[in-house]
Amino acid sequence: MDDNLKQVIMHELNTPIGWMSPLVYGCDNEESFELLKKAHQKLFDKVRDLRDATSFTFETSTDSYNPYDIVKKQVEEMSIKESVPITFKSDEKKCQSKGNARSLALVVNKLLENALLFSSREVVVVEVETRRNTNGRLVFKGSVQDRGIGIHESVAEKIFEPFFQVSQGSNRKFDGLGLGLSIVRLHMKGLNGEVILKKSTPNVGSIFEFTLPCELSL
Questions:
Q1: What is the arrangement of strands in the sheet containing 138-146, beginning at the earlier edge strand?
Q2: Predicted confidence (pLDDT) at residue 171 exceeds the cutoff of 50
């Protein structure tokens, strides 16, 4: 494990521990309990991401689901959770995909978390549609667009690598272990789909696009 990775992990795990300090020193009030709740969730999320990234096993399924419904639900839940409006656009077609619907929900959730984090909670737009790819196959396509810091082309190929950080060191502006996008790619592969950085411009924003096989339904 290289020194930068050690520094990132120590920083990320120590931050929520620091939030718990008021409880340790006897600050028994509502604010302290809110800090504890936030710290618990943050630690839980990081341990989960570490587990998923280091020992990933895709849960296969032959069940059918409507990807439009999955994406719309995640958008609505994230909007409520973060108290921020998220624009949802759809061509309103009906289609069915096969596989683990929870994986698609996780993909959308991770992409939304990134968009809200790196865009300082500014405008986020999610679009979904059904179309044919270059091979003539029907696919469900979703995109998540933000107006955030953007990604420089020199690191665009690295962002799906585990533990990659756009900013380095313990004093970086944005937190996280750098595992979200690598986990997204693992789940999309399990769904026989794909996720890409469609477009990104520094200080303007980014568009992530994901596709997966589908069939039109009545």
A1: 87-90, 124-132, 138-146, 205-213, 194-201
A2: no
Per-residue pLDDT tens over the stretch 4-48: 665 676 667 667 666 666 665 566 667 766 777 777 677 777 766
Radius of gyration of the chain, Cα coordinates, nearest whole angstrom: 19
Give Dmax over CA atoms of the chain in angstroms: 64
Classify residue 19 by its DSSP letter.
H
Q: Give start and end residues of each alpha helix (H) in 135-179.
A: none
Beta strands in the chain (DSSP E): 64-65, 87-90, 95-98, 124-132, 138-146, 194-201, 205-213, 215-216
Beta strand 205-213 pairing with 138-146: antiparallel
Residue 53 has what pLDDT? 65
Instruction: Determine the Cα–Cα distance for residues 70 and 59; give it in Å rounded to an integer.
Output: 17
Cβ proximity of 50 and 1 under 8 Å? no
**Using one digit for the tens of pLDDT, what is the confidence trace for 118-151?**
776 557 999 999 999 888 899 999 999 998 888 8
